[in-house]
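tool_call: predict_structure(chain=1)
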Amino acid sequence: MNSVSQPSRSSPAARRLRLAALALLLGGAGLAYAATPASASKIEIKRDAAAVDRSKAEPSSYAPVVKRVAPSVVKITTETRASRVARTGPGQEFPGFDNPMFREFFGGRMPEMPRTPQGGLGSGVIISADGYIATNNHVVQGADRVTVALDDGRELSAKVVGRDPQTDIAVIKVEATGLPAITFADSGKTEVGDRAIAIGNPFGIGETVTTGIISAKGRRPGLGLAYEDFIQTDAAINPGNSGGALIDLDGRLIGINTAILSRSGGFQGVGLAVPSNLVANVADSLVKRGKVVRGFLGVTAQDITPGLAESLRVPAKAGALVADVQPGSPAEKAGLASGDIIVAVDGQKVEDANRLTFAVGAIAPGTEVELRILRDGKESTLKATTAERPRSARAGRFEEDPSDQTMPGGDEGVLTGVAVGDIDRDARRAMNLPPRLNGAMVTEVDPESAAARAGLRSGDVILEINRRPVADAEEVVRLSREAEGRKTLLKLWSRGSTVFVVVDETDEAPAN
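tool_result:
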């Protein structure tokens, strides 16, 4: 099985744990923003939106391009002062200090023990002549000191302007002018098969250049980021390359190298870079506000699978299926409803839920947008005004079934092998279910059933069957028996969000 590792900060401790364990620890706190006031913040990103000229013959040498661009790529070193408080309990660093005798001796307070500061390495790209540098969030997160080594030999202290863990992009700044800023290409115009050059500082050995092609676009490898839309390349990148430049043959930035997929922790042909268009938008917002402000509609959306497309009678890749609409949200005010399919936002085609997230997130809050939707097979247009995306915690996932009272799904219905129960007050509290949620809770699923193969599990809440709302367990049984055909469209509350699934009884279980 593949593991996910990053070409990121390198230290002796990290090497002992093997590079394969560098699995994008993106959510950590501990690094305060040093944001410049918005009135004084300004960033001038050089852009070149022209498409790559693919009619040109491939050069015999990349040296001219590298000489022009390499000064724009910097080496970043970080230092993190580790906590001085002795830990106790599992994984304790100073065994024995949790003994009550020691606590009494030290007056109830544990002694503080100094620890060796941890160092890290990464790369960065100069994006403006006055000292702004783009890199990865995981390169600088938690760092107490950041130092930038320029191509001309200077080493300058840097401050963190802002970080965006949701895209793994950060911006730092050094006090210098006249720096060689890189030119941004329109990453949307790159194509699979285009040549690409990676420049960075792998393993801290110094500036290194590798070349390859763009292997894929729009990759979502599941690294734990809210916004994943990576460019995949086979240009060799390794630990220390994080935050470095991925450029085209014209020397323009097409991405920031971020992660690798690898069994060993070393490069194995699959490198991932954040597209330059996304880098530019995030960097601009971080410089101006110290944070990224994204548009928000208030919908939970999902991709349309072949099974869903058949049940909804729409083409595959028809858009993003709205599973849930938050009360009081811009989407609800615009008239959007669960079961609608969003096919375009302001004329920009929406192919799936990920594309919807990016399209809405790129729109400033307070902007009126036009949503083209499919509802019951008919196309219509709605107007919505985006709000600022709230910082809300994900609901807790269901761990166990708290219900005593269950009802069998029945052997005659399409949900054979599923047991359901009513949602009482205790179950609602135990499962942290929203007050507005009505339905029937799944208490047991036969692992050999079609429902289990569709993804149903204990703790899910059935909200609708074939677009008909469910009030309680008895109604689930009745609607299940009344359903025609051997495919059933379910709307569920599952693991903290609303989703649609298709239970297909014609889908045979795999033979053992």
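agent: The longest helix spans residues 276-289. Proceeding to next step.
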